[in-house]
Amino acid sequence: MTGELPSTSRTFHVADYDLGSTLGCGQAFRWRQSGNDWIGVVGGRWVRLREGRGGIRAETAGPVDDWRWLADYLQADVSLDRVLSTFPDDEPMRVAVKACRGLRLLRQEPWECLASFILSSTKQIVQIQQVISLLCERFGDPVAVPPGHPPAWSFPGPARLAGAREAQLRACKMGFRAPYLLEAARRVQSGELNLDGLHDLGEAELRARLMTLHGVGRKIADCVLLFAYGHPAAFPVDVWVLRALKELYFAGRRVTPATLQAFAAGHFGSHAGYAQQYLFHYMRSRDRMSP
DNA sequence: GCCCAGGTGAAGC
DNA sequence: GCTTCACATGGG
User: Fold this and answer.
1) Contacts of A38 (CB under 8 A, 6+ apart)
2) Statement: residue A287 has pLDDT above 90
3) Residue A217, Cβ neighbours under 10 Å: how many?
4) Closest-approach nucleotide to residue A273, Cα vs C1'
5) How much is the average pLDDT of A232-253?
6) CA within 20 to 30 Å of A40's CA: A63, A88, A166, A258, which one?
7) Maximum Cα–Cα distance for chain A, whole Å?
8) For residues A140 and A156, is the Cβ–Cβ distance under 8 A?
9) Mapped to the 3 state alphabet, what secondary structure does A36-56 carry?
């Protein structure tokens, strides 16, 4: 890897990688589509992605000599076939996989992921995107963009947000979530909750640590476990997944959240989180197609 | 106007 | 224990 010439573009040779469903499925909130391109900010860098023959072509605004940060974010080394082979062999999963084959899970930076999902509760994905866009514009740092492109900002770190006033955060239209985000930023900034030091914790212990934050319950914690820390069995249950499980596996019966979590833990295998994301995306896309 | 959105915490039985 | 409700804000 060392010794390569710095470049502003790189192709990641991946198969079965659908950028649209991966970047638009509601696991990350900072990507916007422009024709065949997807433009976002990863690790403080402006990035443009496009599907091409042989893989995904990435461009940055300035030269890069080590692309591991982006390969890691995209999880370019993951074999989708291997993941899909762990799914249960049942009709709902076959249908869900068929609906969005090529959907991948990203590996996001923990603070951005945690903060984003604190802002996600009872909001639609488009609104979460709007709030986060405002937050970055007002509190993030400008990042370099290629000539002629609209400005872009980094995701504000905990130190920056810890110094904000609650009213300034509310002005980003996050409503009652503002004090939750502020408290999280302060506890991370103070070192009381060191997000970088949690990678070695087991699933249950990490979940418990995250849930000590106000505004972070089981669902949001599971999103962070899955999307930032790479715990493959974390299984976030939101309204869509609740609907999916009830309809597809419980014949519409009433079930408690605990029952669903227990079922999910036993039924969906070692990559239950991946299965969850396929169910989530399938339910949402199906809903959009039929009025 | 009404209901819902990648929920959570607190109050009420 | 479990059920109900408030919480901001915007879209359908």
Assistant:
1) A19, A20, A23, A31, A32, A48, A49, A50
2) no
3) 12
4) B6
5) 95
6) A166
7) 60
8) yes
9) CEEEEEECCEEEEEEEECCEE
Structure tokens at A195: 């997000």
Closest C1' nucleotide to A258's CA = C2
- Whether the per-residue pLDDT at A81 is higher than 80: the answer is yes
Tokens representing A244 are: 């999916």
Distance, CA of A111 to C1' of B4, in Å: 28
Which residues have C-beta within 8 Å of that of residue A253, sequence separation ≥ 6? A246
Q: A91-127 pLDDT, tens per residue?
A: 999 999 999 999 999 999 999 999 999 999 999 999 9
Residue nearest to nucleotide C12 (CA to C1'): A291
A219 among known catalytic residues: yes
| Closest by CA position to A232, among listed A282, A200, A275, A199 | A275
Q: Which nucleotide is nearest to A235 (CA to C1')?
A: B6
